[in-house]
Amino acid sequence: MMKKNTIPEDVYILAIESSCDETAAAVVKNGREILSNVIASQIDLHTLYGGVVPEIASRKHIEKINPVIETALSDAGMTLDQTTAIAVTYGPGLVGALLVGVAEAKAIAYAAGKPLVGVHHIEGHISANFIEHPDLEPPFVCLVVSGGHSHLVVVKDYGEFEILGRTRDDAAGEAFDKVARAVGLGYPGGPKIDKAAKEGNKKAIHFPRAKVEGSVYDFSFSGLKSAVLNYLNHAQMTGEEVNIADLAASFQYAVVDVLVTHTIAAAKERGYDKVAIAGGVASNSELRSEMKKACKKAGLTFYYPSPVYCTDNAAMIGTAAYYEYINGARSGWDLNAVPYLKLGER
Amino acid sequence: MKILGIESSSLVASVAVVTDDVVTAEFTANFKKTHSQTLLPMLDQMGKLIELDMKTLDAIAVAAGPGSFTGLRIGAATAKGLGLALGKPLAAVPTLEALACNLWGCAGVVCPILDARRDQVYTGVYRVGQSGAAEKEKADVMLPEIILDQCALDIAGLMRKLEEIGEPVTFLGDGVSVFRERLSAELKVPYTFAPAQNNRQRAASVAALGTEYVKCGRTVTAAEFKPDYLRKSQAEREREEKEEQKR
């Protein structure tokens, strides 16, 4: 890794993201100015299967990736030559899906003679908060929650993280998907449950809040998922009618309660005055409103990205890449996809 | 004409530059490292060695399938990225057709077989550089004659096809090591197996055949190119089977 001390006037990063079922590309100026942000979602395709099918996702990435990148460049009014560097998500995620973006980005960077910056997907999600909040600077506490990830992180500096807690089993978004499937709401579970819950009473059913032995900031959602399934089984056997809205609201509240409690506790105990959320589940309306309330009560400033920057997107990858780039991070032509890449690992 | 060839449809990672009728350089590795780690470093090293200016390429030829799904996509994304950055067209060369061209001039028919698992092979039957192709050669284009277009077949089905064709056959490809005994025991037409130096995929064949494709105008844009897997994903197959049962 080279260290570079001189920062060119303006840095334009073409960023590519293909870690799951979104093919995305963006052009980001100086880290925080989004010149374009193109996302081709495959969600309709995977709805047929009740979840993301890796092989189908990978095939779709190949079909979409060039048009998505070309649109990102034209939306930004730029040519490839005018960009400073090429960035790509190289982990964590589905290996076959990641490989499409990684191979494509390497080839583009190689042929265009541009530096290549490999980006950690979670670092991208966290960095989404920088896009709309020019005042936000590290350090702060960030809760990253999505279909594949649940992390409670201290962002000590750009690109420098301390993981306080993570899920021991299901990711928060995964629990939403599984419960939504069990009650027949379908895929993707997060938005479906969020919508159903708006009509329900979140205190109608009390579901357990799991604590992880010996590690106060870790999460566990499989027990909660089982409790919901047991509740449904019991209702079915006794012939009771299940109020889906109440169940959705109560389940969602149980998830959000744990997420909020852990996050606020971490910020207070570690002495940080700023809290951010990131990832697909950060779009959840209950999480947003409960976290907002709790932060206000605790005297913490709360940051959250717009939904378009919560979902998988390449703008956030470009933002994260900018800080990596000015710190001198460069990837080699042997950059590989790393499906279980840990945050802060290189 | 200068064509870059990319082959990553199997364990072999291979890149080559063919300039008219000369292989300017070819790097091939048959090693356990993933193509993601090998392919672009190989291109980089080869390019430096021959002082390759990528802008002087006329097209990028890529093994378009069948093969390992992931391997095909690494080659495809590499070719698409190069094509996008350079504004060059792609020649989508069928994996088995290029593999058959390793044995250009071979008597009888050439039958590449790739292990497709599930008791099948990806295969095709070709006549390469002989009488059948004479008409086309007059037009200065050297394409193999396709007798059986590439497909997924069980080995018994392939042997029946070869017996129908009734000509001496030369086998090559990674399916040979899997089915050699079966073929030796049961096949009723004369056969031989290609030797080590040309029995696996190589980018020089992809680039050379790609050159012929470009001459015929058989190119695609980098944006529209996608691999030809010859098979649906497992999830799609299972879903279709279920739908079928419902009916």
3D architecture notes:
The complex is a heterodimer of chains A (346) and B (247). Chain A is α/β, with parallel strands linked by helices. Chain A has two domains: 12-127 and 310-326, ATPase, nucleotide binding domain (Nucleotidyltransferase, domain 5, 2-Layer Sandwich); 137-306, ATPase, nucleotide binding domain (Nucleotidyltransferase, domain 5), CATH 3.30.420.40. Chain A has helices at residues 43-47, 54-75, 95-112, 121-132, 172-182, 189-197, 222-238, 244-270, 285-298, 307-310, 315-326, and strands at residues 12-17, 22-29, 33-41, 85-91, 116-120, 140-145, 150-157, 160-166, 274-278, 301-303. In chain A, the strands form two sheets. A five-stranded mixed sheet of chain A has the order 3-2-1-4-5, sandwiched between helices. In chain A, helix 4 packs across helix 11, helix 6 crosses helix 8 (244-270) and helix 8 packs parallel to helix 9 (285-298). Chain A starts with 11 loop residues before the first strand and ends in a 20-residue tail after the last helix. The model of chain A has no long low-confidence stretch (mean pLDDT 94). Chain B has eight helices and ten strands. In chain B, 47% of the residues are buried. In chain B, strands 3-2-1-4-5 form a five-stranded mixed sheet, sandwiched between helices. Chain B folds into two domains: 2-95 and 200-235, Nucleotidyltransferase, domain 5; 102-198, Nucleotidyltransferase, domain 5, CATH 3.30.420. At the A-B interface, helix 2 and helix 3 of A face helix 1, helix 2 and helix 8 of B.
Structural class of chain A: alpha/beta
- Give the helix/strand class of chain B: alpha/beta
Query: Roughly how many Å is the radius of gyration of chain B?
Result: 18 Å
Number of E strands of chain A: 10
- The CATH topology of the largest domain in chain B is what? Nucleotidyltransferase, domain 5
* H/E topology pattern of chain A: EEEHHEHEHEEEHHHHEHEHH
Q: Largest sheet of chain B, described in full?
A: 5 strands, mixed
* Low-pLDDT ranges of chain B: none
Helix content of chain A: 40-55%
Which sequence of strands runs across the widest sheet of chain A? 3-2-1-4-5
Distance between the termini of chain B: 54 Å
- Separation, N- and C-terminal Cα atoms of chain A: 10 Å
Indicate the mean pLDDT of chain A. Answer: 94
Number of helices of chain A: 11
Shape, principal axes of CA atoms of chain A: globular
Q: What name is given to the CATH topology of the largest domain in chain A?
A: Nucleotidyltransferase, domain 5
Morphology call of chain B: globular
